[in-house]
Structure formats: C-alpha cells, structure tokens
Amino acid sequence: MNNLGEFLRDVWRLSRPYFRSEEKWSARLLLGAIIALNLLMVGMNVVLNYWNQQFYNALQAHDFTAFMQLLFTWRRTPSGNVMPGFTEVVTVYILVFVYVTYLNQWLQIRWRRWLTGRFLDEWLADHAYYRISLRHDEQAFGTDNPDQRISDDLRDFVGVTLSLGVDFLSNLVSIASFVGILWSLSGDLTLWGVTIPGYMVWVALVYAVVGTWLTHLVGRPLVGLRFRQQRVEADFRYALVRVRENVEGIALYGGEEEEKGNLRDRFHNVITNWWAIMQRTKKLNALVSGYGQIAVIFPFVVAAPRYFRNKIQLGGLMQVAGAFGQVQGSLSWFVNAYGSLAQWRAIVERLTTFYSAIEAARTLSTTSGPTIAASADGTLALSDLTLGLPNGQTLVDHASLTLAPGTATVVTGRSGSGKSTLFRAIAGIWPYGSGRIARAPGERCLFLPQRAYIPLGTLRHAVTYPRDPATIPRETVAAALHDVGLGGLVDHLDQDRNWAQTLSGGEQQRLALARALLVQPDWLFLDEATASLDPEAEQALYRTLRERLPGTTLVSIAHRPAVAAFHERRVVLERPGESPGRLVAGEAAAGAG
C-alpha cells in the first residue's frame, strides 16, 4: 500500500488532467461555485451560532417580543448588530444546500464523462486492451476486471473525491471561523497554578487528536478489505456474465452444477470478505458512535462551571456548545470520514494500477514485437521473424518467407504449433517477438479469426462491422448475405438482438465472410474461418470468395484437403515438440478450385 504522499500524488495525477482539459473553464467555474456555496454554508452556521445565543437569552429572560422577532423577522442586538430571523436564515440555507447538491452532481457527471472517455481512449489505443489480456499475472499488472474499473471505479472516484475534497476544505474554514468564537467565549482555566487561555479550544483539539488516533488504529485494515471487496464483487459479476454469454454450451454439456459450484465459490469470496468488513466496521462504528455521542454532552460539561458561576448566560452556554461542536467536529473530520477515506484509497489504488497497466501495454506495443512496414512491391515478406509466448517460450525462430500477391497460400501444421500467433504477428497485434514484416497497409488487409466477433446492435451493424452501416447501401449488404448463404436473414437487418447467441457458430462464420465481401481487401487472412461449416458448405464459400474477390490474395490456416485445393501454395509450420518452429514452403496444392 502506498504511503500518504504517494497516494495524494496518485489522486492529483488522476484529477489534474480534467481541470486542464478542453473543459477546464467550465470545470473550474463549477468547482469554484461549489466551494463558494459550501463556504457560504459555513458562514450561515456562524450566523446561526450567534442566533442561538440571542434566542436562548430571550428564553431565559422570558422576552416574548425578542423570541418572535428572532423566529420570523429580525432584531437589533444590544451591541447594535442586526440579527436576521430564523425563517430568513433557514430559507437562505435551504437554497444554498439545494444548489450545492445540484452543482455537485452536474460537475460529477461532466467529470465522469470526460474521465471515462479518456480511459476508453487509452485502453483501446495501440491494442492496449489486447496486450493486457495476454498477461496472466493480473495482480502485478493490475488488469483484473477492466470493465469494473472503467464503469464503477471512475464513477466512485469522481463522487468520493468531490465529496471528501469539498468537505475537507469546508471543515478547514469552519475551524478558522469558529475557533475565534470559541476562544473568546471559553475564557481562562487555572489548573495547578497554571492559567490556560481559551481552554476549550485546547480541549477540543486534544479530544479530536485522541479520537483520530484511535479511529486510524481500528479502521486501518478497512483499506485493504475495501480494495479486495471491489475485486471479488467484479469477479462474481464477470462469472455471471460468462454464464449469460455461453448459455447454449453450458446447456449442451449439462454443466449447470459445475457453473453453480463456480458461482458459489466466487460468491463465497464475496461473503467471506464482506464478513471481515462487517467485523471491522462494527468496531469502527462503536468507536465513532461513542465518540460522537460523547461530543454532544462534552462541551456542556466543560463549560458548565462558568455557567453555574453566572459568568455566562444560557445563550452564551449554548453558543459555546455550538462553537465547540463545530471546532471539534471539524477537527474530527478524519474520524467521521474514515469509512469514505478507506473506500477512496481503494478506488484510487485500483485506477492507478489499471492506468499503469495501460501505459505499460502501450509502451510494449511500441518497443517490442516485430516491426510492421509497408511493402513496396505488394508482397508479404517476413524477415528474420522470431515469435514467442508471454512465458518466454519460442514458437518460431528467425524465419523468413515471401508471399506474392495473387498466389493463394494455405498454412498448415499441427495444432498448437503457433499458426494463429503467426497471423497475429502479421496483423501487428502480437508484442512478443522480433524481426520485420512488410505487407500492404492495414486497411487493405482483413483478418478473420476462427471465432467470429459479433458486436452488439442490429444485424446490419454486425455485418458491416467495423465500418459505419450508413456508408454501405442496404442492397449491397443484402447481396453479401445472399452470397454467403444467409439470405433468410435479410428481412432482419434492422433488428437489434443478441446476435452472438441467436446465430449458430457456422452462421457467425458465414456472416464474417460477408464482411470480407463488403470490404474487398487486397489480402484476406482466414484462421480456420470456415471450420464450423460442413465440407460442402466450406468449399462453396471458398468458391464464392474466389469468384467475388478476384483481386484478393487468400492466406488460410486450414487442415482439410478440400480447403487446400483452393490455394496454389502451401506453407508448413514445422515445430517438433516444444522446440522453436520453422516455416517450410511445400509443394503446390493439387487442383486449385
């Protein structure tokens, strides 16, 4: 856990960019207005403190006229000052309180919107989200549950930071405002021949320091417990989402009991950690509650001797008690806010580690992995290519290969030899390795993995992904669906469903091939992109690709001879056992389709 200085620097690094962004003036104006209104509320409390003195003096003197004036209008005090009525003070106080809350919520949603946009930009840039997912040491790399960090942690960070920050500032001003009042009203106290001026100020200080020390001693473990609670809650939620996204597979395997056990285990972690939080919170609440209750009567006990010696009136006693409560309450801010401070520290820790993980992943993308360059002659050239895994194991060692445009190539090799990783390196997303890859510009190469990605939204959006559906005529999309054997879905193009669950695996692969027909790339890389189809359908689709995309060079990972027949060249990734592999150009496939 970071020390206080490091923690505050982390808070500053997370907060500062927004107030220096393109929204800086509106952000600063809103923050300034919130601070000003909170300070005005402190001023209203000062007015109420003096009002209490006049009100209780009127009660003690049985002065009905002063009593009514203090309630409803205003009254000139014996010292010549004008004291507003309670109705006027409370009306202003309510208006200030309402707009403090309103402006605070306004700034929260604007700040959260900006922070969310920034984190999304950083997370999705340079394939950082993908590179983070390759790491398995999540604790060290700070990558668990990015959805929870972007959604919940950013929301809580903005809310808690504003609440604690403004509250802390208000308490500082409250101390400055009331300590003078308390000093002047408390008088001197003589103990063992020593005169202590403004003794109630010192009493309030000692009371707050002792309470703060005890609160930190009891509540310190809450920081780590809150951090872990956010993590186990996110793990449980992620497991539930996984069940929702894989309902058919679970049902077909009959895996309900296994899933139930997994969910119960994850929820058990939630309960176990929550129980630890309960136990620690019980102790903290006992301390804070007792501290607060004693603080109600404590100033009366301390000030009572002066009252009973007739040195102050009832109004003075109430004013002293009120001022003592304000000073002691402000000095005890740490005690009262400890639960929120523990939550805040856990949130900042999670966001800081996540952002560090993003920066590390983006650095990895620019400082490691094969170099991607534009091909001058249109060929795909691999030069001195070495590929490895995150654990350091080498898949391919110093391989070189050139593929000419217009020559369809099939890549084969035993399962697990690294064929898919080779495609990832060619796509420019694999960060573990070295060498040089020269190929066509990114937008002219299309990569189709075995598991087609189906985004949320309408079917038309799914077919045209990642392009804007509005830029492609509906007739063109419909024709592509007909070509890949999904003509029956044309009438559903504008329907918004969970298409990833509605479509079968084979239909999802057909849909991905329809994207290829729309994009018409120079190079099309298919990583067993038709493996879920029967051999006849697979051949029909390859034939369609060759007919509809005559200018596209196909590069396929496949095992079936029928697929190899649609290619003029074969490349074998030979990798004996766990040893580094090599690329071997084989003989031409027989009977290209």
Rg, Cα atoms, Å:
35 Å
Task: Look at the helices and sheets and give the structural class.
Answer: alpha/beta
The residue-averaged pLDDT reads 83
| CATH homologous superfamily assignment of the largest domain | ABC transporter type 1, transmembrane domain
Lateral arrangement of strands in the main beta sheet? 10-13-14-8-15-16
Q: How would you characterize the overall build of this protein?
A:
The protein has 593 residues and is an alpha/beta fold. The chain folds into two domains: 4-366, Up-down Bundle (ABC transporter transmembrane region fold), CATH 1.20.1560.10; 371-586, Rossmann fold, CATH 3.40.50.300. Helix content is 62%, strand content 13%. The protein has 21 helices and 16 strands. The protein has helices spanning 4-15, 24-60, 64-72, 86-124, 128-133, 138-141, 146-186, 199-219, 221-245, 247-253, 256-308, 314-331, 333-336, 338-367, 419-427, 459-464, 474-483, 499-502, 505-519, 535-548, 561-564; strands at residues 74-76, 82-84, 188-191, 194-197, 371-374, 380-388, 394-403, 409-412, 433-439, 445-448, 457-458, 496-497, 523-527, 553-557, 569-574, 582-586. The chain has a six-stranded mixed beta sheet with strand order 10-13-14-8-15-16, with helices on both faces. The protein has a four-stranded mixed beta sheet with strand order 5-9-6-7, with helices on one face. A hairpin with a 2-residue loop joins strand 3 and strand 4. It is elongated, with a radius of gyration of 35 Å. The model has no long low-confidence stretch (mean pLDDT 83).
